[in-house]
Automatic annotation (TrEMBL):
Naturally occurring in which organism (per UniProt): Parabacteroides faecis
Family annotation (InterPro entries): DUF1062 (IPR009412)
Protein name from the UniProt record: DUF1062 domain-containing protein
Length: 163
């Protein structure tokens, strides 16, 4: 965070692990302090780590800076309830619903999450998607869609049972 007269600049500063050069990703530029919410201003002032991570994984921030953020080396862990296809087939309801919760968006494909959580091969998942046994109520293509917080996936147990 930097103040110039009555204006505030806020950056997320990246350092290259290979060449040690830095890049300033602009969060706010030439903004009047009174235009920044007090809590947000406090977090900027204290270099709040959680807030920094939010901006680091914000596609909006990347877009505003005309940069493509590379998340290929991000390590992540998928925490989920262990549920098998047999569990789905034995469920009381016709549809089993999964809701994705994530703090960050970093280009992870939804199909990868589904495969890991249900213990499916890529081939099995493709067949189930083509048969419309696994789908999104919003209609986005599961194989290409990037995970976002709140994404919902439905599994139709009757169609799954046919495989």
């Amino acid at each position: 965070m930097n103040a110039q007269k009555r204006n505030i600049d806020v950056w997320l500063i990246y350092r290259c692990v290979e060449c040690d050069s830095t890049y300033n990703l602009t969060i706010l530029s030439r903004t009047k302090p009174e235009q920044i919410k007090k809590e947000l201003f406090r977090k900027f002032s204290e270099n709040d780590e959680e807030l920094a991570w939010e901006y680091a994984f914000s596609s909006e921030t990347g877009r505003k800076n005309s940069v493509e953020l590379d998340y290929s080396s991000v390590e992540y862990e998928i925490l989920h309830d262990d549920i098998s296809i047999n569990d789905i087939l034995n469920a009381d309801d016709e549809f089993v619903t999964f809701k994705i919760q994530t703090r960050f968006e970093f280009g992870l494909k939804l199909s990868s999450v589904i495969r890991i959580c249900l213990g499916l091969s890529a081939n099995q998942l493709n067949r189930l998607i083509e048969a419309k046994a696994i789908f999104s109520p919003e209609g986005y293509p599961l194989k290409k869609h990037k995970v976002k917080d709140g994404d919902v996936v439905l599994v139709n147990k009757h169609i799954v049972g046919m495989f």
